[in-house]
Amino acid sequence: MREAAESECRSWRSIADLLGRSKDAPVALLGAPLSERSLTPGRCDLAPKAIRDVLRRFSVYDLETEHGIDDLAVFDAGDVDLKAVSPADAFAPVRDAAAKLAGQHGLTVILGGNNAVTRPGVHALGPLERTGLITLDAHFDLRDTDCGLLNGNPVKALIEDGLPGRNIVQIGLAPFANTARMHETAKAHGICVRTMGDCREIGVLGLVDAALETLWERCEVIYVDFDIDVVDRAQCPGAPGARPGGMAAHDFFAAARRLAAHPRVKAVDLTEFDPGIDVADITALTAGRWLCEVLAGYAARG
């Protein structure tokens, strides 16, 4: 029988235990609880706390690979104060906080908030000309910006800021969730467009590997936006933009691990999770498992 001091009843380690205040940690976690100016009004600002809360329900051991990540430290930088802040006014605070972390840590993980946090997150990595963007998203996020910044136009805003379209790969775009004009905009700017049909035909990991290979040739750093509404609605009820026929959760997890393992991926975000409409913590647990996969991927860099 195990000694009492070694009992797993007393020594259980969770992903939450990896989070701390050591600035020497290789990974940094930043909350960006932005909810203003959203096309799908809700409480995405509650997501960072909801995700942190479920991390105690995940162990640090991966049964399938027989490897643990218990030695991986994560600096929890807390949340940027974005209460009642518009995407335009949130730009500088999120960019500056993320840039500081990206300069000090190997990987910065941003917990949104709505998808408008992606624009300042990309800017945090440095000159746009040398930065790549991969999105796992059901939507192009290429709405016009003449009505202001929204969660539906961060990619359009980034292009207007100077991010070359050829530096962008979008994976998981859904039918009947976008417009012909957005598609034409994507093609006109040279964005690599990969639909949910491509995900089923080629495989999500095949598309991820192709995206990394493409951006490796032209970008020094890569940012990945994981909009959780790319996941099938049945597996993600807390994502207001999710629809039936989306990506399977296990493919979402596999993509997260593969992308986080790549040495040029310097920052990732998770966006569009609204705990206010979640059911039985399904989406919160999906987001928590996503973070587990990101950390496991980073740990695999060696």
Automatic annotation (TrEMBL):
The keyword Manganese applies. GO terms for molecular function: agmatinase activity; metal ion binding. Pfam families: Arginase. InterPro entries: Ureohydrolase (IPR006035), Ureohydrolase_dom_sf (IPR023696). Keywords: Histidine metabolism, Hydrolase, Manganese, Metal-binding. One of its GO terms (biological process) is putrescine biosynthetic process from arginine, via agmatine. The keyword Manganese applies. Belongs to the arginase family. This is Arginase.
